[in-house]
Amino acid sequence: MQLLCLTDRDPADSLPGLDLLPHEIRTSPLSLRVPDTMADRFDAILIDGTLDPRRARTASMSLIDSTETPRVVVLSEVALPVLTTDWGVRDLLLPTASPAEIELRLRLLERPSLADETPSPAVQAAGVVIDESNFIARVYGRTLDLTYKEFELLHFLTGHPGRVFTREQLLSEVWGTDYFGGTRTVDVHVRRLRAKLGDHEGLISTVRGVGYGFARARYEETSE
After folding, report:
1. Between the N and C ends of the chain, which has fewer C-beta atoms within 10 Å?
2. Is DNA-binding included in the keywords of this UniProt record (predicted)?
3. Quick check: 119 pLDDT over 70?
């Protein structure tokens, strides 16, 4: 996930468990107003209230009418009584939250509410089934434990079996045109995906000098 952390210090100081997760994090001072277009680029906004809950409240409330990006506030246990619904946050994290808890809460932000539209149909190819509505990916019935971007990358590749994409194309489709990192992140995520696919790692093939493809051998045989 791409996270924006509103804080006046290193995010690892207010939420140490976050530093152990593979999310992409940008920071901005609590006192600096976040432009609407910038806030919408992120999957979630973390608001650090561990040092000054009042400033965290002001920062959170300033975003209520400007963006629908879900917000999560980080508060120490002694400051919990100050948190009310008018902050407009979706969830709360204690500084002591483990990496597993942080990851779970961030994933739940992406789950559709019961009031949302009919879930999207599953995408499937070559034994991989992507259930986007429930954020679940399976390979021949085995559920894969994926990060958000690993899920998005596998989802995209599974939706285009047999095709080859350059690293630049994958970066644009999965990470977005406003992503500031380089194409090496694509290689890193492909390597992690292959490891989690296990015996089926060959589903993601490397085309030297070009990029990556999904289930190329199977779909090339079918098309002949």
Report:
1. C
2. yes
3. no
The span from the CA of 151 to the CA of 144, in Å, is 9
C-alpha–C-alpha distance, residues 204 and 7, integer Å:
39
Q: What sections of the chain are H helices per DSSP? A: 11-14, 36-39, 53-61, 99-110, 148-158, 167-170, 184-197, 216-223
Gap between the Cα atoms of 41 and 60, Å rounded:
17
Q: What is the pTM of this model?
A: 0.50
Residues 70 and 143 in one domain: no
* pLDDT at site 126: 85
209: left (phi over 0), alpha (psi -120 to 50) or beta: left
Domain interval for residue 25: 2-110
